[in-house]
Design goal:
The structure is a single chain. This protein has seven helices and two strands; from the N terminus they run ααααβααβα. The chain has a two-stranded antiparallel ribbon. Myosin is a hexamer of 2 heavy chains and 4 light chains. Pfam families: EF-hand_7.
Length: about 140
């Protein structure tokens, strides 16, 4: 059974030293936004971080989605489906490239941890439906 503790948590963390990066280099994602937009992102993060620990974890997501009347599993699945609009599957090489080159970049070690917990199928696709189920329910689908 895969565990959330084995997965990289970068997607669920507040950016470290965000203020320094915002004011500094323009080669990061924050350079694409105006200061007012960045402030809105920070406010949204604060709203979602229900327990105020600096991380958006599974409990925080459940509380946020419940407050919005949304199904967390369906919402996260729809985010993955943006990269798989035809439902043909997500190639693990493509996911690796995206995670290592966009936003809060994953390290090779974090990628290895993710694929150890969720190995690609024989076609090289990531079973993102199972990954989403584990994120939202904490256990693998049968």
């Amino acid at each position: 059974m895969a565990s959330l503790r084995k997965l990289p948590v970068k997607l669920f963390q507040a950016p470290k030293k965000a203020k320094k990066r915002i004011e500094g280099a323009n080669s990061n994602v924050f350079s694409m936004f105006e200061q007012a937009q960045i402030q809105e992102f920070k406010e949204a993060f604060t709203i979602m971080d229900q327990n105020r620990d600096g991380f958006i974890d599974k409990a925080d997501l459940r509380d946020t989605f419940a407050a919005l009347g949304a199904d967390p599993e369906e919402t996260i699945l729809n985010a993955f489906k943006v990269f798989d609009p035809e439902g043909k599957g997500l190639k693990s090489a493509y996911i690796k490239e995206m995670l290592m080159t966009q936003g809060e970049r994953f390290s090779q070690e974090e990628i290895d941890q993710m694929f150890a917990a969720f190995p690609p199928d024989v076609s090289g696709n990531l079973d993102y439906k199972n990954l989403v189920h584990v994120i939202t329910h904490g256990e693998e689908k049968d």
